[in-house]
Specification:
The protein is of the alpha+beta class. It contains three helices and seven strands. Strands 2-4-5-7-6 form a five-stranded mixed β-barrel. A hairpin with a 2-residue loop joins strand 6 and strand 7. The model has no long low-confidence stretch (mean pLDDT 85).
């Protein structure tokens, strides 16, 4: 019915497709453990079970009058205007970090109300311009 040439082409294309599917599966499977999902304080309250060994990335706004700094750590509250979570961080905070601004804290949950952060990322709006660029535009 089909010639030898057609059967070889079909076999070759099937083999390429199988290798491609296997490669995509392996890449996605390896990324599964390394992806850190962004969740809000409300999402944390609604989680069924918390994995305390998993790194979480919590985002929202820094609550007004919630920032307290000591010599080597900063404590603040992240809110999404429905729920709140307290955050403790030791390290250098970003320049854009301030009250009532967007922030993402990455770290490990101690319970549903407390995050021990290992990294702080300050978010900015689309109109943000680094000070160096602002200065250059003025000149």
């Amino acid at each position: 019915m089909y010639g030898k040439k057609v059967k070889l082409r079909f076999l070759f294309l099937s083999l390429i497709l199988a290798v491609l599917i296997l490669t995509i599966f392996l890449v996605l499977k390896s990324l599964e453990d390394n992806v850190v999902y962004f969740i809000s304080p409300t999402d944390i309250k609604e989680l069924g079970e918390i994995d305390y060994d998993k790194k979480y990335r919590v985002g929202g706004m820094v609550k007004k009058n919630s920032v307290s700094m000591s010599s080597n750590q900063i404590n603040f509250i992240i809110t999404d205007l429905k729920s709140e979570i307290s955050v403790k961080f030791s390290g250098v905070i970003p320049n854009l970090f301030s009250e009532e601004k967007g922030v993402v804290a990455e770290g490990f949950l101690k319970d549903r109300n407390f995050l021990n952060a290992s990294k702080i990322l300050a978010k900015h709006d689309e109109n943000y311009m680094p000070p160096e660029v602002k200065e250059a535009l003025k000149d």
